[in-house]
Every structure is written in structure tokens, then in C-alpha cells.
């Protein structure tokens, strides 16, 4: 297993003697992140459908890159969760000693340092690192990791990708990895600013995107299907016929159309 460095800090428990307690990191804005996927504000119609076509084409091009990111972040989360379990199983570890009383006395947070790079290789100078925070006693944040990637290198089929980015990894919904990234990505074709929100499930990849200043969620299924979520609910789309059928309600606005077509 890839080595993980844990630094556990106290919020309101003093062990042995009085000391100044460091402040916990600022919690990520999970409400905004989850709302971006669950309740986009856009309304699908002829105009936004036409504008989304170009966005969808770009997203399809980026899908291979995002699959690479998704595989890497899944590896990170699985490693952190395994390391946390290993640490808390032993009452001799710092995390194991502090977590039990802190869950009663006031809580704790941990900072986890993950060395990027291929499995079995630990070389921070070459592959960079991820430094992620987690809250140990808040059920809302127990399955959320957030922090920064610094010169974090991921090896892909098309060459290495280097990430310098703030990141949130949310695995609170079983079987789904929700990711928010905001930073700079360097690939073979150059360096670009990148602000990505995507979620990766067992059979579906979803992106938060925009059209005409409105937000939407576009999803690609393993079976080739395309779906769009707007403020009214979910749409099943056929890009060849340039049309979408309304599939299910559940948004923040009432559906106006049952079918949308664009030229």
C-alpha cells in the first residue's frame, strides 16, 4: 500500500497539559457542489439545446482525460480509506488513540499526505503530492476529502498529466465519486486553467456544464446514452436526431415541454 502520512490535530481536547489548539481547515462548500449536480438552474429548450451541442462535443473529447482523473482519484480515496482503517484499528497509533475520545469530547480533523505516481513507486520529487483534509467526527464530512494537488503527476496513455489544483473528493454517495477541481492542468499539448466538476458512477460519467449562462448536467452512459438534467428534471437525448425527451421530474422548476428539438 502507498505510504500515507497522517497529522491529527485536536479541536477541543487537551491531552496531558494545556496547549494551543490549531484551528481546523475551512470545510468545503458541499452544498454548492452537490446542488450543481442535483439542481442545475438551466432550462432545456431549442436555444440552450443548440448551445449545448458544442459543449457536449467538447465533453466527449475530455471524457478520456476525465476517466484518467477518475481512476486516479478512486485510487487515492481507496488508499486513504484503507490507511485510515489500518490506523484506527490499532490503539497504539496516534489516530487510533485520539479518535475515540475526540468523537465524544469535541472532534478532530486529520491532514493526509499522498504521494502521486504509479502504484508501488514513492517519489515525491518526481511525481508530486496531494495534501488532503478530512473531518473525523462529522458524519456529513466523514466521506469527504479536500485540499490541494501540488505538481501531482498522473501517467496516462497519451503521456503524463501534471495537476496543480484545489480539489474536493466526495464519496458519501456509495458507488459514486464526485470531484471538483479548480487549478491548472499541464498536458502534452500545453498548460491550461481547468475548473471541472464531474461525477463517476459504476456505469455513468456526468459533468456540470453551462449554455447561455445557465447550468446543466450532461451524463454519458457506458451504453452510449446521453442524458441532460435541467431545472425541471432529467431528459433522454439523441444527438443524431438533435432531440431530447423529458424522462422524469424532480427539479426546482416545472417542465414546460415534453420534447425539445434543435436545428
Secondary structure: elements and pairs:
Elements lengths: L3 E7 L19 H9 L7 H44 L4 H12 L2 E8 L8 H4 L1 E7 L8 E13 L2 E12 L6 E11 L2 E11 L3 E8 L2 E8 L4 E4 L3 E6 L4 E7 L9 E3 L2
Antiparallel strand pairs: 1-2, 2-3, 3-4, 4-5, 5-6, 6-7, 7-8, 8-9, 9-10, 10-11, 11-12, 12-13
Helix pairs in contact: 2-3
Q: Keywords for this structure?
A:
globular, 13-stranded antiparallel sheet, 26% helix, disordered N terminus, alpha+beta, 263 residues, 4 helices, single chain
- Give me the count of strands: 13
Tell me the major beta sheet.
13 strands, antiparallel
**What's the domain count?**
1
Uncertain residue ranges: 3-17, 87-106
Strand order of the main beta sheet, please?
A: 1-2-3-4-5-6-7-8-9-10-11-12-13
Quote the distance from N terminus to C terminus: 53 Å
Mean pLDDT: 80
Note the overall shape: globular
Portion of residues in helices? 25-40%
Radius of gyration: 21 Å
Given helix and strand content, the structural type is: alpha+beta
Amino acid at each position: 500500500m502507498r505510504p500515507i502520512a497522517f497529522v491529527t490535530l485536536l479541536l477541543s481536547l487537551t491531552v496531558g497539559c494545556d496547549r494551543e489548539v490549531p484551528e481546523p481547515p475551512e470545510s468545503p462548500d458541499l452544498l454548492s457542489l452537490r446542488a450543481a449536480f442535483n439542481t442545475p438552474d438551466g432550462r432545456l429548450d431549442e436555444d440552450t439545446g443548440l448551445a449545448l451541442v458544442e459543449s457536449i462535443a467538447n465533453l466527449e473529447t475530455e471524457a478520456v482525460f476525465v476517466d484518467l482523473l477518475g481512476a486516479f482519484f478512486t485510487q487515492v480515496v481507496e488508499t486513504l480509506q484503507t490507511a485510515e482503517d489500518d490506523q484506527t484499528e490499532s490503539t497504539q497509533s496516534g489516530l487510533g488513540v485520539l479518535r475515540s475520545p475526540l468523537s465524544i469530547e469535541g472532534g478532530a480533523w486529520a491532514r493526509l499526505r499522498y504521494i502521486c505516481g504509479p502504484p508501488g513507486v514513492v517519489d515525491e520529487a518526481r511525481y508530486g503530492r496531494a495534501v488532503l483534509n478530512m473531518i473525523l467526527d462529522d458524519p456529513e464530512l466523514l466521506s469527504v476529502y479536500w485540499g490541494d494537488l501540488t505538481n501531482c503527476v498522473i501517467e496516462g496513455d497519451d503521456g503524463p498529466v501534471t495537476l496543480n489544483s484545489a480539489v474536493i473528493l466526495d464519496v458519501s454517495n456509495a458507488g459514486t465519486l464526485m470531484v471538483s477541481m479548480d487549478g491548472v492542468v499541464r498536458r502534452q499539448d500545453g498548460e491550461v486553467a481547468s475548473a471541472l466538476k464531474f461525477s463517476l458512477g459504476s456505469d455513468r460519467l456526468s459533468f456540470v456544464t453551462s449554455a447561455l449562462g445557465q447550468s446543466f448536467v450532461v451524463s454519458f452512459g457506458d451504453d452510449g446514452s446521453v442524458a441532460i438534467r435541467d431545472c425541471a428534471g432529467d431528459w433522454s437525448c439523441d444527438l443524431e436526431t438533435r432531440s431530447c425527451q423529458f424522462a422524469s421530474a424532480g427539479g426546482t422548476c416545472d417542465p414546460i415541454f415534453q420534447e425539445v428539438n434543435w436545428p
